[in-house]
Amino acid sequence: MHLELEVISLAPRAFVIKNFLNDFEVNSIIRGARSRLHHSSVGDTDTGAFESDTRTSSNAWLPRQFNAVTETLFRRAADLIQIDERHLTRSDAAEDMQVVHYVNGQRYDAHHDWGVSGHPESRYLTLLLYLTDMASPDAGGETSFPKADHGRGIKVHPGKGSAVLFYNLLPDGNGDDLSLHAALPVFEGEKWLANFWVWDPKMK
Q1: What angle do CA 129, 6, 188 make, to 5 degrees?
Q2: Which residues pair with 64 in a beta bridge?
Q3: Measured distance CA(20)–CA(2) in Å, rounded
Q4: How far is CA 169 from CA 96, 155, 177, in A?
Q5: For 122-176, what is each residue's pLDDT tens digit?
């Protein structure tokens, strides 16, 4: 595949990749996740996962080995971020793919994907795979970066089959506060999205 990155922000470093997935791959992910959905949680391995009214979606986890499509997408992600695909496993530097479903005003308030744990391991980058189009220009569900563009904020929804890549850490390894982001409420239709996280230097 020929993938092109469009820069949408330099601080934080964020990019849009059009046509990252095809319709068959999109439908396969949604079909595989639908029966596994449960209420989304927040937190991490240090604080423990818990439900919060700051995140009101449902989600499911699909491992790399779930089927041929997930295996292909993990390899494609490795090509995109230019690291050896053997590192994109739960025993090394990548989490399972998290598929998220939003309807009826559901949202995820502003948050960072990196955490302050006292450990060197952290989520290095986030790849968001958009599995549905917006039902209308006013349907909501965009991804917002409220501290981008010198505090004016930006919001993006590149459409079904496209992806947004952004870096959670600065080049020196510290967390990038400007990577604060939110899933804005969905007011019309539904939104399916898949989160793909890569850690540095490895999964904790």
Answers
A1: 45
A2: none
A3: 9
A4: 20, 20, 9
A5: 999 999 999 999 999 999 999 999 999 999 999 999 999 999 999 999 999 999 9
